[in-house]
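> forwarded from #structure-qc
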């Protein structure tokens, strides 16, 4: 039998599985996927002890989040969902990381996931300049204050970004 190990996720205090369910593929961006098979795969992962799902608003233009919503509705366990925001910007530039856009992304993910508050929102590989824009992080703090998100972070592409994000 598989033994899932758990560890504390950052400063959240959450005890999450070291292996998570990455939901990029269930969004269908990489080819045809069957929603029933995707849902079954998520249920199987949870049955084995996985309690952390990673997704993004751009995975299948919200399809991944909507499938996760169906899975969450069927489960009683605590399952943490990390989603990402920002890659829907077109063009994907630092100027698009406004309080209004971030709140719109969060509101859409809340609707897709059927939640009142998002567990974790990560900026989705934003341009490096974003890490030097305090107003972006003030906007995220505002979303925490409003109860729309519990925690936020960043999904990074470069070491410099990871260091600055910390």
């Amino acid at each position: 039998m598989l033994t899932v190990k758990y560890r504390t996720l950052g400063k959240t205090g959450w005890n999450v599985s070291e292996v998570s369910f990455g939901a990029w593929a269930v969004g269908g961006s990489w080819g045809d996927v069957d929603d029933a098979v995707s849902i079954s795969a998520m249920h199987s992962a949870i049955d084995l002890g996985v309690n952390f799902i990673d997704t993004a608003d751009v995975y299948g233009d919200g399809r991944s989040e909507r499938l996760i919503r169906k899975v969450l509705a069927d489960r009683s366990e605590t399952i943490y969902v990390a989603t990402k925001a920002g890659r829907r910007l077109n063009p994907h530039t630092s100027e698009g990381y406004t309080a209004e856009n971030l709140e719109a992304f969060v509101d859409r993910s809340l609707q897709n996931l059927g939640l009142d508050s998002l567990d974790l929102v990560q900026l989705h590989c934003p341009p490096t300049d974003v890490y030097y824009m305090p107003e972006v992080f003030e906007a995220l703090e505002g979303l925490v204050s409003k109860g729309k998100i519990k925690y936020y972070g960043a999904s990074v592409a470069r070491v410099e970004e990871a260091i600055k994000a910390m």
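QC bot note: The chain has five helices and seven strands. The CA atoms of residues 131 and 165 lie 6 Å apart.
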